[in-house]
Amino acid sequence: MKTLTLAQIYELQGLKSDALEIYKEILKKDPKNGEARAAIHRLSGIRRHFKGVDEEMKRFFVEMDSDAEFAEFERWLSKL
Q1: Is the pLDDT of residue 54 over 90?
Q2: Whole-prediction pTM value?
Q3: C-alpha torsion sign, points 65, 71, 75, 80
Q4: Nearest to 2 by CA among 54, 39, 55
Q5: How far apart are CA 78 and CA 42, in angstroms?
Q6: Total domains present in the chain
Q7: Among 23, 11, 20, which Cα is nearest to 57's?
Q8: What long-range pairs does 23-27 form, CB within 8 A, spacing at least 24?
Q9: What InterPro entries does the entry give (predicted)?
Q10: 31-40: long-range contacts (C-beta < 8 A, 24 or more apart)?
C-alpha cells in the first residue's frame, strides 16, 4: 500500500524517485492532497539540480557495510 508515510520514508532514505512516484499516485487519487502536492514540487526541484543522484545513492545505501560508509551517507544526506 502506497502511503504518505512510505513516500516520506523513501525520501528520508534518499530514494527520491521512488518517493516522487508514490506522491504522484497519491495526488492522482486525491487531487486536493496538499502534502503530496508540496512534496512533488520539492522533489521535482531537487531532481532538476541533482540528476542521477538517486540511483547512485540507492546503490551506495544498499551496499554500504562499514561505519565510514554510513558516516559518508549521513554527510551526503545533510547536503540535501
Answers
A1: no
A2: 0.58
A3: positive
A4: 39
A5: 16
A6: 1
A7: 11
A8: 26/2
A9: TPR-like_helical_dom_sf
A10: 33/4, 35/4, 36/4, 36/7, 39/7, 39/8, 39/11
Domain that holds residue 12: 4-79
Alpha carbon of residue 62 to chain centroid:
14
- DSSP conformational letter for 50: S
Cell of 21: 512516484
Cell reading at 34: 496538499
**What pLDDT shows up at residue 30?**
94
Tens digits of per-residue pLDDT, 19-53?
999 999 999 999 999 999 999 988 887 555 555 56
Three cell numbers, residue 49 = 539540480
- The pLDDT assigned to 75 comes to 77
